[in-house]
Amino acid sequence: MIRVAVVGTGGIAGICHLPALRAQAHRARVVAAVDVDEARVGAFCAEHAIPEAYTSLEVMLDAERPDLVHLCTPPHLHAVQAVTCLKAGAWVWTEKPACLSLAEYDLITAAEGPGYASVVSQHRFGSGARHLRALAPELGRPLVALCVTTWYRDHAYFDVPWRGRWETEGGGPTMGHGIHQMDLMLSVLGDWAEIRAMTGTLDRRIETEDVSMAAVRFESGAMASVVNSVLSRREESYLRFDYTEATVELRHLYGYRNADWTSTSTRWNPPEDLPSSHEAQLAELLDAYERGERPPMSGPEGRQALELITGLYASAFTGRPVLRSDLTPGHPAYHSLDGHAWS
Hints:
By secondary structure, the chain is of the alpha/beta class. Helix content is 33%, strand content 25%.
């Protein structure tokens, strides 16, 4: 059995991670949970029949020696906690965003071996996305894409102390919400080459943006329009891919099934109906663990969405186009997405 520990016992752990782990109970067992709030972790363990509760990550790692750690903590804690777990010999599965900067991400990957760090990116793993990637060569050249995350989060949502702050959340809807649709877009279209963007804080009382817009050119030559918002009363997640021979569209909100996809191609026919979910990605992560291979959404693959987000913020803060090749350690956005300090 693969020994699993869950770190951070807030909403995402119980809503998404524990159901995914229960679906893999034939090969994975949760042996411990960690939270700085002793009462909360105790209640979480009681609710989910987890045998051991801890308030210290280091103490848990030393006592339990888990094979895999699920990091469900706020974003500003991910980098340090991931490196700590990797150095203890555990694999890591981190909630999005993986960390607050490309510099932090590269520190995480530098700590890999023998374990790996993977980031939650569940929309890549539904059957619709798999089918599109497999079918894409038959649809011709990709030309135009739309990537829209128009969600709604009221003022009270940002009362949680770490939300809406550069130092703790790392960004607004670009970083914390639209990352899922942008990552799915990248999985289909590949690496980007150039981005031009703007951001605004139009209504929420936060440090970060509450809306962003960008125009993206991909290495293939395809062009995309990207919108991220937490101000939109009618919520939607929307992706559109226009190829020379067909259009493929996805409309959903927080997760999709095959019925949420449409296409003008007569060849569009996903062979199964696997929802985009933590469960779908965890299955592949555990497969990789059992084979001793690098899992999906680790290394360069896990870096893709953070790279695009970094380019978006860099362009918005400087008012200039940004090339992907610009984002080296010599660029200030490599180290911090908060351009107030360097733009």
